[in-house]
Amino acid sequence: MKKTITTVILTIGTVLGFAQQTIPVQPEIKLLPIEVNAQANVEEKTSTAKKSFTYLRMGISDSTPAEQNLKDVRVVPGLGLGYRLISGPSAIDISASYNRRYVRDEEGKKDTYFYTLPKANYLHYITPASSSSAYVGAGMAWGGLKNKNKSEFIGLIPNVAAGYEMNRNAAWRSFVQLDVSQPAVAASRKNDFPGPIAELSVGAGF
Predict the structure, then answer these.
(1) Which helix (H) or strand (E) holds 153?
(2) Torsions phi, psi of 36, nearest 5?
(3) Which CATH number characterizes residue 55's domain?
(4) Do 181 and 164 share a structural domain?
(5) For residue 101, what are the domain limits?
(6) Strand positions, DSSP E, 38-151
(7) Domains: count for the chain
(8) What is the distance, to the nearest Å, from the Cα of residue 143 to the centroid of all Cα atoms in its chain?
């Protein structure tokens, strides 16, 4: 009888042992799919971030001959429309602008203007990963100019630019930019060769 009881106990213990070995152990990595999904969402948002925007800008410009005093500067207000395509720390900016003003002096009323159509600039961002960044660049434009000294110019106009772009991670972006241009290769010209043109503008786009 004792032998039978012992045999039954050993049999039950063996069966329970095998049963315990066959019970599946739940893995402790339930959060792994959630973490992977979160990382995928971040990558997706980064990949779909806007890399370009169209903008409208308002500015003032002036063409100042070398002999002209600063007190005689006559700013010319104007508007511009452009498109900026961003890739990493760099951007290509394509724009057009038109500035015009009537200036009155001792000789009467004079029509002054400055336009570029088109203007292409290469820009480089100083801190491309931040939401706001300063930038510098240079480019070339086809344009025309007439100043109060009756100098007229149509042709190629190289320029350098420096600016500060804000809200780079938002739907609406804005920037402040200073351009200095110098008429260089004339298709047509009248009177004296014009001096450099400084243009300060504020832009906003989406």
Answers:
(1) strand 152-166
(2) -65, -45
(3) 2.40.160.20
(4) yes
(5) 50-205
(6) 52-63, 76-87, 90-105, 108-125, 133-146
(7) 2
(8) 24
Mean pLDDT over residues 170-198, rounded? 93
CA distance linking residue 13 with residue 82, whole number of Å: 83
Amino acid at 143: G
Helix (H, G, I), strand (E, B) or coil at 91: strand
CA–CA distance, 40 with 48 (Å, rounded to integer) = 12
Contact 114, 103 (CB under 8 A): no
* Mean pLDDT across 106-135: 89
Q: What is the pLDDT of residue 192?
A: 87
Do 36 and 62 fall into the same domain? no
Q: Is residue 40 over pLDDT 50?
A: no
Contact present, 152 and 189 (Cβ < 8 Å): yes
32 shares its domain with 90: no
Here the tokens at position 181 are 């241009």
Main-chain phi, psi angles of 24, to 5 degrees = -70, 140
Q: Are residues 18 and 63 in the same domain?
A: no
